[in-house]
Amino acid sequence: MNKSIADIHPIVVYGASGYTGSLVAKELLRRGFKVVLSGRSEAALHQISAELDGISEVRAVELNEPASLRAVLRGCSAVINCAGPFSETADPLVSAAIAVGVHYLDTSAEQPHARRMFEVHDGPARQAGVTLLPAAAFYNALGDLMAHAVSAEMGALEEVTSAYGVRGWNMTRGSRVTAVNFMRDRIGFSDGRQHRLSTIPKFTRFEFPHPLGRKRVIVDYPLGEPITVPRHTDTKKVTCLMSEEAFADGFYIRLVVALGSSIPLLAPLLRWVMRRRRNPRPEQIAGSDFVIEIRVRSTRATRRGTIFGADIYGISAIIIAEAAMRLLGSGGVRSGTLSAAEAFDSRRFLDALANHGVRYEIDQPIALVESA
What we know:
By secondary structure, this protein is an alpha/beta fold. It has two domains: 5-135 and 317-344, 3-Layer(aba) Sandwich (Rossmann fold); 138-313 and 352-367, Dihydrodipicolinate Reductase, domain 2 (2-Layer Sandwich), CATH 3.30.360.10. The protein is 39% helix and 23% strand. It contains 15 helices and 17 strands. Strands 7, 10, 11, 12, 13, 14, 16 and 17 form an eight-stranded mixed beta sheet that branches. It has a seven-stranded parallel beta sheet with strand order 3-2-1-4-5-6-15, with helices on both faces. Strands 8-9 form a two-stranded antiparallel sheet. Strand 8 and strand 9 form a beta hairpin. The longest helix has 19 residues, at 312-330. The mean pLDDT is 90.
């Protein structure tokens, strides 16, 4: 079954007055979807509506009002949550979505939230016939899709490495607030199971393809791949790496992350400070570029795949809009909590991003030479 976009009920964008939320709403409208702008501030939502098309419906609601949340979502096809921290915003929206039979997607990059989505909400979503797609944006979705594509026909793996070479990441206000607790409750995957990691990061060097080259990277950076990749790929270990130079705010952001993760009592104060910092200028936020390299290794061979692109916030809007279109238009995605690679054909999804400045390449497997 393939529905035309005109036949699909509206999509609610929660957090639509934020930077990412407004990009998502704009991309959905560009594709022809009907959009409902939602969030806490009615005035801010009306301002975004005027800037986008002037006709999108506005439905302001607080997350601590379950009945009002259900009323906002009723009659819609899906809700896209763009309001972090998702460890605070997701549960009320997911519960309301399941209650009224509306699909849920979000732009999160928070490990504890992703694990909770699979462990807590999967069963109720299956029973309700609702699909939940957490982390359906730049962080996690691209790595998850690429890991699945590169691992195809490789058999059982020893390790999947997902290495992010990001330059010029000027964080939005929402990303900064979320970053306060980012290194706390880190989750790794080794020996075929999830486990907790130290809040103190380790560093190594990784050889990215041109134009990045050899970079100092954070080992076991807390992204979703250790949670999502083992769901569809047989591997003993998943490792995430992040280039240290990713953070355009440099020392300041690293200090906030370190303090918020190691001294939990400081987290509320740090989040308050982050909320009151101004967003960088739009051209600064859009000025990032990236290389994501996926390396997989079995006992017999290795294989590599690489994704190139720019503007991690802009491409997040493209990715989640593409996910919504495929989820709502095809009718072939099963219910429950899914990663991007569980929900969609990996190569076809990646191919669809080519018109938006994203390109990828996957090498042929290289056999390992057996030692004498």
